[in-house]
Amino acid sequence: MGELLWYFPETIKELKEIITTSVGVVPHSGGTGLLKGDVRKYKGLVDLGRLHISNIEEKDDFVEIGAMATYGDILRYFKDKNNNALLYKSLLNAASFPLRNRITIGGSVAYFPPWTDVMGPLFALSAQVYLTGEKEGWYSILDYATNRELHKKTVVLKIRYKKDVDTGRSAHYRAKRTQIDHPAFTITLLLYVRDERVHSASFYVVGTKDKFKRLNVLEKQVIGKNVKEIDPESMSLDEVEFYGKVQFSPEYQKTLFITEVKRKLRDILETLK
Amino acid sequence: MGNREFKVVGKSVKKIDALSLAIGEAKYTADINLPNMLHIAFLYSPYPHAEIVEIDTKEAEKTPGVVLVLTYKDVPNTLHTTAGQGYPEPSPYDTRILDKRVRYVGDRVAIIAAETKEIAEEAKKKIKVKYRELPYNIDPEKAKESERIPPEGAYHLLPTIYEPEKNIAAGITLSVGDVEKGFSESDKVFEDRFEIHYANHAALEPHAALAFYDERGRLNIVSTTQVPFHARRITSRVLGIPVKDIRVIKPRIGGGFGGKQEVFLEQVVGLVTYKTKRPSKVVLSRKEVFISTRTRHPMITWYKAGVKKDTKEIHALRLKALMNAGAYGPHALTVMANAGSKVLPLFNKIKHLQFEGFSVYTNLPVGGAYRGYGATQGYFGFNVMLDMIAEELGIDVLEFFKKGHIKKGETSPIFEKLGEGKEGVSQIIRSCALSECIEKGSKAIKWHEKRRKKIRKGDKVRGVGAAILMQGSGIPKIDMGAAYMKMNEDGSFNLHIGATDLGTGSDTILAQIAAEEIGTSIDKIIVYSSDTDFTPFDVGAYASSTTYISGGAVLKCARKIKEEILKVAANMLNVPQDALFIEDGTVYTKDRTQRVTFSDIALYSLYSKDQHQIQSVASNIGLESPPPFMAQFAEVEVDIKTGRIDVVKFVSAVDCGQPINPALVEGQVEGATVNGIGYALWEEYVFDKKGRMLNPSFWDYKVPSIMDIPEMEVIICKTYEPTGPHGAKSVAEIGINGPVPAISNAVYDAIGVRLKKSPFTPERVLNAIKEQGLKL
Amino acid sequence: MKGIFIINSEKKELEFEPHKRLLDVLRENGYTEVKEGCREGECGACVVLLDGRPVNSCQVLAASVMEREITTSKGIGSLHNPHPIQEAFAEAGAVQCGFCTPGMVVSTYALLSENPTPDDEDIKYALSGNICRCTGYVKIIKAVKLASKKVKENGK
Predict the structure, then answer these.
(1) CATH no. for residue A105?
(2) Is the complex ipTM higher than 0.90?
(3) Cβ contact (<8 Å) for B667 and C135?
(4) Nearest-by-Cβ selection for C18 from A3, A31, A34
């Protein structure tokens, strides 16, 4: 192992140069993901800390969040503004208080650990990520999460989603043992209702065997329905498979998933009645 | 006597080291660095049972910065026990520093010392080991028929059942009356099996030790130890270095809970420093703490109880216990024995009793002392059984408790029959407020409003459950503590004690005991603990002994120095000694016409006439072990669809005699309770088929956070224990014993499902619901 | 590599290896009030303030926080000039073994800076990343409330 090199780009241009030309370097945002392993295995780390990309703002129709915004930054941003925001609800109990001041949204999106609290909401919000490096521009979060090519020699600079998407009714569930625990899986539900009818629905579970899954079967059963007629108990659910985790067998996770997805859906419907 | 007015005792004075700790000034072992110090890493076995066929350390030794690599070939092969107990230890001598055979995943294979910890950790990966895998067993119920685990030649110092060839680490059987006859005379017989699990102490400070030679060539060891004197004795024996050449120092300790009542690092740093003549240090990682230190012993208990319908009493009771000692046997005999000795006397009117306990070796992590020490394991089944019996008899379990429990002036034959590795000591209970604890605790939990109500809100049902407990106060006629005091010219006192404050606050309460007795304020007592060179002997902090045993020594010591003070004062004032009394650091004649301050007395004794040091020393052994008593109550909310249990409220009502420092009493109970709740609900070792722990981290071994605690209430039901210092008994351990049974009983109250296997994870509860069916 | 850190309001130039965590760099340079309990960001014994916000120093690579302000418990108060938070922890019986306490103090300092009169829920939320194995947390909540009162009275 050679000595680990640090790069401290101060402009996006410099960042792009390093990312596209250096071999074996990885971006460093908060570091919490990288530190789960041994950082000495990398040739170099590109610190994004001096790029000033932690801003959160409303821009045109979008909420735009800089990749270096920490969970703590996001929570503070929404706290007084909109504590119904899906990201606010989902990050409120993610990790722990001090860790939230280090985990960045960009790092979570790029690293996408199965226990993340942020990916379900970003999928549900149909978020986009802005990449720089060998690819440049906005990509849908779904593409970015599923296409490894998009990760090669690129860095996530910012994330955005349409403001009006987040005006729906939403819920986030974390399957946890204790209050401060990484979730075995998360469920994110987002419903948009117009004239008492479900106009659109976006349901995700993260932490499954295939990492994540959109709950199409369930979505179909609610879209177009009058909210008063929806009975979560009687609905059939998507087949979701889990891998075993400590104190969570695959079978138990399945039971828990079925129970909690229905509960969260009922909770949302209650607020509409 | 019980109504004595105290001036210092009974007050929640601030812990004397609290501010220094809150700032971060106080030093723990890992905070100490010495010039030229080596750092130590361990290589651990990846197999549950294997023989080292070949071990090649050349590459590791060649690594720049590596100074020493030790394998079983290079270390003394003395068989010993790591249990930091009195001598002769009631634990088998079955352990070597390193051995040719490894017995669990996490057993030590090699010791590497290098200029930095990182180098040592890197170098260990270069050690090439060829193992021959051996048949292994992780099921205690199959231990007797499995491949022998302990080494050839393993032995026990005490005359006790020890059959290493059958993997039996200890065994005890005893009877009172005729249990079989008792069952046949009973109207109804209950029988059930309970299983309680592996857990880690998870003291926030990981184990660490540091060794160096002082300027006279004596080996100094700083260690995170609960037992500095046992550490010195065991290290001396294992390394063959005379006791006189070893000094063990206990700095601040970041929690122990029994996990630091083991001597497994001192001999390693001692050996490395002995071989290299350089200071050396080892600080374990959290993962190492989990896999390679000590654990709560898992235990299977079978309770059988015969009940008479007319008297509504238990007529006969049998407890069979099978304890999993893990790969080595520290505390294998005594923890198992305590499952009987700390539990069975609580219901002392049972005519026919039998206890049969075995500890067996398996290829799993090593059990050791853990707060509760067998009582935790024994009380689970005991309290659930009582709950079942009371239900069957159609009486409130609290009434059943109150009628059955041992009372002041009573005894139990078990006290005499079952002790720590040998027979026990008979005793009469001289203080007991358990009925008051039950009464007050039940009010606090609103027992009568909530019991049997099954209050339901959607999928969530509430219930309340209770457990009653006792522990001990030190090990009678075995544990000894000593204290030394001297007076300074400003009227302050140095108090030197071997008793080890692990964060419990014992330095503070011992100072309170001394200040109270002498008649001065606590700020005049300068406490120093513990250092084998500078403090008198003490067995250390375990078995809930410090307040009672070491406190007793401090009390005696304070009495003696007080006598000495009065003698000097009498000379100074030229009056008879019995004409004097002490108040707030001043000696007065009884008519208050004359007085001398402590400072005057000390100055006089040091500089004026008949110069001498006013000082005293005293030792104390417990002739009895008066039990503290406790009633604990849990209110739970059970999610019947997910199996999740939320503890809503938890009440502990305790009789610990006279509380020396009520805030510290509450702190002990609150801490023990939360540890117990974590143990009941989530904390557990999860193993794969080969006995490899799958969750050796706080990431996956969940310790309760501040968000996880229920509403908590601690009620102190004061008594006066005539044999205790200022009326005190112990309090440290007892609170961890109740949460498992109280929560199990509360869940039954809520949903009619009996939980008999811990921890009560949502998945396990849900499975129990499926098996037994809800009774709502 | 070398870097400047502003530790407890003092500018320090420190030499460290590029893969080192802030926790190690602090402890190796004598800031042993920052404790190592797990090295995985779960226990909170190593919590320090980074530009005023609590972070687990074991989860921070030192190189990434050069030039920034780091505050430890000793930066908040000292033995001869303790901060009311430290006094409150001592007085409320919230210090048993004390290994978690410097981290608790730091988290409390951050909490009270933002919210001078927190209720139980606020306190639990802000200290959720600090594990204590000794106290059962009851006295810790009491200490934070006492600290809030003291800070208000002292105007610190």
Answers:
(1) 3.30.465.10
(2) yes
(3) yes
(4) A3
Residue B420, pLDDT > 90, answer no
pTM value is 0.98
Q: How many domains does chain C have?
A: 2
- Is the pLDDT assigned to residue B2 strictly greater than 80? no
Q: Is residue A200 domain-shared with residue A260, that is, in the same domain?
A: yes
For residue B531, give both structure tokens: 């250092």
User: Nearest 5°: phi and psi at B763?
Assistant: -65, -45
Q: Is B760 exposed, middle or buried (0-12, 13-18, 19+ CB in 10 A)?
A: buried
Task: Name subunits touching C (3+ CB pairs < 8 A).
Answer: A, B
Cα–Cα distance measured from residue C122 to residue B436, given in angstroms and rounded to the nearest whole number: 36
Domain range for B704 is 299-475+624-772
Tell me the pLDDT band of A273, cut-offs 50, 70 and 90: confident
Asked if residue B629 lies in contact with residue B564, where contact means CB atoms within 8 angstroms, the answer is: no
Provide the domain count of chain A: 3
Name the minimum distance, in Å, from the CA of A102 to any CA of chain C: 7
pLDDT (tens digit, 9 = 90+) per residue, B707-741?
Answer: 999 999 999 999 999 999 999 999 999 999 999 99
Residue range of the domain that includes A124: 56-165
d(CA C56, CA C37): 11
Give me the residues paired with residue A140 across strands: A128
Q: Which of A101, A117, A95 is nearest to C60 (CA)?
A: A101
DSSP state letters, B397-431 = HHHHHHHHS--TT---HHHHH--SSS---------
Same domain, C45 and C99: no
- What is the 8-class DSSP label of residue B298? P
Instruction: List residues of A whose CB lies inside 8 A of any C CB.
Output: 3-6, 28, 30-32, 34-35, 38-40, 45, 47, 49, 72, 95-99, 101-102, 179-180
Neighbouring C-beta atoms of residue A233, cutoff 10 Å: 7
CA gap B201, B296 in Å, rounded: 8
Q: How many CB pairs under 8 A join B and C?
A: 191
CATH number of the domain enclosing B552: 3.30.365.10
Q: What is the pLDDT of residue B551?
A: 98
Least Cα distance to A110 among A154, A173, A169 occurs for A154
Q: What is the pLDDT of residue B1?
A: 45
**Residues 6 or more apart in contact with residue B76 via CB below 8 angstroms:** B97, B238, B239, B240, B271
Mean pLDDT of chain B: 97
- Residue B152: which residues within 8 A CB-CB, separation 6 or more? none
State whether A256 and A192 are in the same domain: yes
Using an 8 Å CB-CB cutoff, list chain A residues near B708.
178-180
Nearest CA to C37 out of C80, C119, C95, C101 is that of C101
Domain final residue, candidates C39, C60, C75 = C75
Chain position carrying tokens 């070893």: B246
What band does B3 get if pLDDT is binned at 50, 70 and 90? low
Q: Which residues contact A136 (CB under 8 A, 6 or more apart)?
A: none
- Partners of C125 on chain A (C-beta within 8 Å) are 97
Query: CB–CB of C136/B739 below 8 Å?
Result: no
Domain tally for chain B?
Answer: 3
Neighbours of chain A (3+ CB pairs under 8 A): B, C
Do B371 and B675 contact (CB within 8 A), yes or no?
Answer: yes
**Domain with C149 in it:** 76-154
Share of chain B above pLDDT 70, in %: 99
Match 């946890």 to its residue by tokens. Answer: A176
Element housing B495 (H / E): strand B493-497
- Residue B440 to chain C, least CA–CA distance (Å): 20
Which pLDDT score is estimated for C155? 67
Q: CB-CB: which of A179, A247, A259 is closest to B642?
A: A259
In C, residues 16-55, which contact B (CB 8 Å cutoff)? 27, 32-40, 42-43, 45
